[in-house]
Amino acid sequence: MIIMGIESSCDETSVSIVEDSRKILSNIIFSQIDIHKIYGGVVPEIASREHIKAINYVAKQALEEAGKTFNDIELIAVTKGPGLVGALLVGMSFAKGVSAALDIPIIGVNHMEGHICANYLQYKELEPPFISLVVSGGHSYLVDVKSYTDYHVIGRTRDDAAGESFDKVSRALGLGYPGGPAIQKASEKGNSEAIDFPRVMLEKDSYDFSFSGLKTAVLNYLNKEKMAGREINPFDVAASFQASVNDVLVSKSVRLAKEKQRDKFVLSGGVAANRDLRNRLTEELNELGIKVYYPEMSLCTDNAAMIASAGYYNYVKYGADTLKVNVIPNLGLEKE
Ligand code: KG4
Ligand code: ZN
Question: Name one GO biological process term (predicted).
Fold first, then answer.
């Protein structure tokens, strides 16, 4: 089955052609990062307008690179949420237009499910069940992935997402947007033990996350040092902050992997690009005999190939949507 994936939930316009669930024929990603950078974060109205300008060209290029035409497409998989409503609507309207005009089945896809499925594109042998840590700019989940379409959410963030905390701390340090790569780079020159930021674990048995206290602790530290007239070492702050986030993510992931006794662990979402997080999870879980998977950089952050893959599995299980399918900006990961 030849699938066209369409992704426009945030600041990447992406169209991909994928064969079945695992073979990428093309994956075109037009990033708006340079446009939003000057504002220090994504401006929703600008994101929607940029998606409108880009989507036709991105789709055309995806078809060309795959050596296909619209007539070859057998399923359109489009992100329906979670994400920015105006941005989501651009991809959804485009998908509906193509579906209606050419009579191609359409399916709305959960963006976070897509992040997990990014791993299937890279690891042809990977099959559920496994535990997944899904960490992006807007969401953080610890999930028991029971099958290709059955997700049991065990932990979630109660306030800021992991990626959001990277973005906010980066902004406070003047390191720019997006924060994750900037903090990672700065951390390499810093001492992760220089400042003792809190590790918020919540209740003893909880798998939930809370990162807003850590962000406040970093802001308070920066203010206090400035008031005292002391010079701030941004590299030490970045490294100590990153160590705090990753300590929490790794310790909860390892505890859950042990409890559920799954032999596979899958890291996904934009924060899965973090080298320290990848290395530490791999080291600690391998010691327990658990195999760790994470996508290559271009499949960690937003892309339409992962949406096509998730679309395939949902289509096989549930069939297509009708043209009444719509965007759901606050869509959760667990199916009702
Ligand atoms: O999945 P994604 O591309 O978009 C959303 O669905 O939100 O994730 C973007 C997030 C941003 O918060 C960005 O700062 C973070 O992923 N990120 C990273 C790294 N690269 C991207 N966080 C930590 N370390 C990185 N290397
Ligand atoms: Zn994402």
Answer: proteolysis
